[in-house]
């Protein structure tokens, strides 16, 4: 939430984005397929998310491209397997499971409520998960059948997601967090001149990042 607020601040307070940068941004979105595919279907309200209540497997999937393609997108995890693995540790609320997966993948994978809760309901219908009301929330836990299925998993689903994402994706998220922390500090205690210089740095970094994509022949 902090990062989102800081990004909103940057957009409102920083220098206007030039028309050239806007055109480059739109070009990169089209070239890399941003805004298309399963993610769009999920935003449009499919209660089971883009791949159904169990989520996708870990094969190459629709985001994978061979040589000369658009590059590999971060693969999403198997929601069913992840929920079973989490509940094998302890009973949890639905939102707690979402937070756990977000944290364990370094923010790479945060399944939506529209995929988590229908999957929990399906597991409950299958007799693998039970639930009880606790403090106005449903607390989920595994049945014996659910524990058997969870025990059959040899690799934690969140580890598969982070491995598929690659080291640079995880390092990038860490770098963004550190940048936002530094910017927050300047905006909190810096003078107006220091704040202006900080925003100049952010704007320059943004332009240079777009330049990397524009100049890199392997970005296609």
TrEMBL record:
Q: Where does this protein have compositionally biased stretches of type Basic residues?
A: 64-76
Sequence ranges of Gly residues compositional bias: 51-63
Quote the protein name from its UniProt record. Answer: Helix-turn-helix transcriptional regulator
Superkingdom of this protein's organism: Bacteria
Stored InterPro entries: Tscrpt_reg_PadR_N, WH-like_DNA-bd_sf, WH_DNA-bd_sf
List, for all copies, the residue spans of the domain called Transcription regulator PadR N-terminal.
Answer: 83-151
Region (Disordered) residue ranges read 23-76
UniProt organism field: Actinomadura latina
Which N-terminal residues, if any, form the signal peptide? none
């Amino acid at each position: 939430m902090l990062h989102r607020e800081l990004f909103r601040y940057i957009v409102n307070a920083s220098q206007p984005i030039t028309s050239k940068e806007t055109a480059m941004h739109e070009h990169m979105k089209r070239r890399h397929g941003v805004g298309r595919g399963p993610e769009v279907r999920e935003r449009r309200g499919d209660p089971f998310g883009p791949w159904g209540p169990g989520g996708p497997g870990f094969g190459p999937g629709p985001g994978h491209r061979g040589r000369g393609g658009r590059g590999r997108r971060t693969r999403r995890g198997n929601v069913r397997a992840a929920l079973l693995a989490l509940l094998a540790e302890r009973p949890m609320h639905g939102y707690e499971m979402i937070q756990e997966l977000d944290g364990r993948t370094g923010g790479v994978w945060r399944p939506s409520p529209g995929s988590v809760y229908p999957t929990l309901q399906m597991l409950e219908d299958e007799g693998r998960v039970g639930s009880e009301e606790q403090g106005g929330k449903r607390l989920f836990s595994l049945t014996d059948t659910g524990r058997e299925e969870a025990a059959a998993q040899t690799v934690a689903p969140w580890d598969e997601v982070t491995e598929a994402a690659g080291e640079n994706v995880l390092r990038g998220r860490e770098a963004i967090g550190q940048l936002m922390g530094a910017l927050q500090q300047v905006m909190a205690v810096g003078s107006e001149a220091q704040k202006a210089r900080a925003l100049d740095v952010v704007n320059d970094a943004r332009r240079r990042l777009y330049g990397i994509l524009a100049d890199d022949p392997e970005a296609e």
